[in-house]
Amino acid sequence: MRKKLIAGNWKMNLDWNEAMTLFAELIQYEKSNDTHADIAVFPPSLYLRHFYELAQDRKSSISVGAQDCSAQVKGAYTGELAASMIHSVGAKYCLVGHSERREYHRESNDILSEKVERLLEADIIPVFCCGESLADRDSDNQTFVIDNQLDGTIFELSTEQFEKIVIAYEPVWAIGTGKTAHPEQAQDMHAFIRGLVHSKYGESVASNTRILYGGSMKPKNAKELLSQPDVDGGLIGGASLKRDDFSAIIKACSRS
């Protein structure tokens, strides 16, 4: 049985005081409630060590993750963060291939493959994002796009490596737009992705791979989305910046 993972991607939001307050509130919620999911928070990287230490101090099981890493091991790459650095401050996860990185930074499959390799070398779990644009969806090309995004990157990994991967399906047309894939649409795509994993790595790996939904999950739709058999959690954007909304999504896991 795959345990749900609820991950909050804070993107470039919240100053120091706001971030520390929200994270402390989430720890308090987790400590006061019987949660039925793994919880992870992906804040701006400046805050990672502080979040890790606060979680350790309060004996919280909330994990922290980075929003990106360098494809390089080390060197003269001003502004970049090496996977080994991210690991050294306590991060358990790191996003790779988020649609905003693909669009704004033109990240190719080759670059994403290198980032995944660096993370695995540093013993960090890559959360690999994939998803189609509205134009791809309207043209009924979504399965082709997803297949290409996976085949040229994480499907190059060995079985042992792939078993450490989390996949996040994020329909680009549903990120920050207020639109959400219908539960049936989400399930269809998650089942398709799991089918690709099955074809490449077999039943055991496919049945144990967590596939998150990352397209405007909110308290009002979380229960229905999380109840789909192949939806193993959520990569939450805007709703993760509000304590009540994020905790409501976590709570929905106990009812899904």
CATH class of the domain at 1-11 and 35-178 and 185-208: Alpha Beta
Using only C-alpha atoms, the radius of gyration works out to: 17 Å
Strand order of the largest sheet: 7-6-5-4-3-2-1-8
Specify the CATH architecture of the domain at 1-11 and 35-178 and 185-208. Alpha-Beta Barrel
Largest sheet: 8 strands, parallel
Measured by DSSP, the beta-strand proportion falls in: 5-15%
**Helical element count?**
12
Q: List the helices and strands in order.
A: EHEHEHEHHEHHHEHHEHEH
Poorly predicted ranges (pLDDT <50, ≥5 residues)?
none
Q: CATH homologous superfamily of the domain at 1-11 and 35-178 and 185-208? A: Aldolase class I
Number of strands: 8
Average the pLDDT over all residues and give the rounded result: 95
Distance between the termini: 13 Å
Bulk shape? globular
Question: The CATH topology of the domain at 1-11 and 35-178 and 185-208 is what?
Answer: TIM Barrel
Give a brief outline of the structure.
By secondary structure, this protein is α/β, with parallel strands linked by helices. It has a domain of 179 residues: TIM Barrel (Alpha-Beta Barrel).
Question: Mind explaining what this structure looks like?
Answer:
It is a single chain. With 256 residues, the protein is of the alpha/beta class. Helix content is 45%, strand content 14%. The chain has a domain at 1-11 and 35-178 and 185-208: Aldolase class I (TIM Barrel), CATH 3.20.20.70. An 8-stranded parallel beta sheet has the order 7-6-5-4-3-2-1-8, covered by helices on one side. Helix 1 runs parallel beside helix 2.
